[in-house]
Design brief:
By secondary structure, the chain is an alpha+beta fold. Helices cover 17% and strands 44% of the residues. Strands 3, 4, 5, 7, 10, 11, 12 and 16 form an eight-stranded mixed beta sheet that branches. Strands 1, 2, 6, 13 and 17 form a five-stranded mixed beta sheet that branches. Strand 10 and strand 11 form a beta hairpin. The N and C termini lie far apart (61 Å). The N terminus is likely disordered.
């Protein structure tokens, strides 16, 4: 009888292991001979110039100039799409954070997200949410370890996460003083967006494949000629003005491009 119970518990453990494989906080699947690594590298720019925090100023609309101190955004429910249309989830959540990009060397290196144990195969696209999915937005930092992407950027009052942050200073009258503080913290379930990056790629077993992206912060702030975020009117918003929040999130979708 004792031997039968031991076998039963062992089988139960195996069932639990396979059931939870695709819900780990870090990687896609159990390591094996048929998996590889995918590196997503994000290079930030402001128009044609390397995007650097603190280290540079950028010309803006209406004669204004900007200096950046922080820029980040979340990606959720990241899936690779096979040529037959089938999606394979490779990551629940990641944050692309340019806070430490403070030199031209760092800007050229970009921000790299490494995803291990990706099933080997040929894929036609990377499909991802932009922001924090509604399921994960119900959680809070107490649910995660200190190094987890969702251990920070949480609004206790709103009971949810900030999807994207942009902070810096603006010189509104071109006198070189950069006197106006810029703070835009955007996040709400209704602002969640998604995008499919069409790009053929191959994941080989036990090898690393790199996928390069460009993120143009100017495109986040300027939708088209004459249609831009005017810091003379609004320089701080914490998702109180939904028109501004939607403007930023819609633009963020267009600001991220695969190379």
């Amino acid at each position: 009888m004792k031997k039968k119970l031991t076998i039963l518990f062992a089988l139960s453990g195996l069932v639990f292991l396979f059931a939870t494989c695709n819900r780990t906080e870090t990687d896609c699947c159990t390591p094996g001979d048929d998996t590889g690594t995918l590196e997503l590298r994000f290079k930030g720019v402001f128009d044609d110039a390397p995007l650097m925090m603190y280290a540079a100023s950028y010309p803006y609309e209406a004669g204004m100039s900007l200096r950046l101190q922080l820029f980040l955004f979340y990606l959720s429910d990241m899936n690779l799409v096979e040529k037959n249309g089938k999606s394979i989830k490779i990551k629940d959540i990641e944050v692309v954070n340019f806070a430490n990009i403070q030199s031209e060397v760092a800007a050229n290196e970009g921000v790299t997200i490494r995803i291990n144990n990706v099933p080997a195969g040929k894929y036609s696209a990377l499909k991802t949410g932009i922001g924090v999915s509604s399921e994960l937005n119900k959680t809070n930092p107490g649910n995660y370890s200190a190094k987890h992407p969702l251990s920070d950027n949480y609004w206790s009052a709103a009971m949810g996460y900030i999807f994207t942050k942009m902070e810096g200073n603006a010189d509104l009258d071109n006198n070189g003083s950069f006197e106006t503080k810029l703070t835009f913290h955007i996040g709400a379930n209704s602002l969640y967006r998604s995008k499919s990056f069409d790009k053929e790629l191959v994941i080989n077993a036990k090898e690393t494949t790199q996928l390069d992206f460009v993120v143009d912060l100017r495109k986040l702030l300027v939708a088209s000629e004459g249609n831009f975020l005017d810091f003379r009117k609004t320089s701080i918003d914490h998702t109180t003005n939904m028109e501004i929040a939607s403007f930023i999130m819609n633009n963020l979708v267009n600001a991220i491009e695969v190379k």
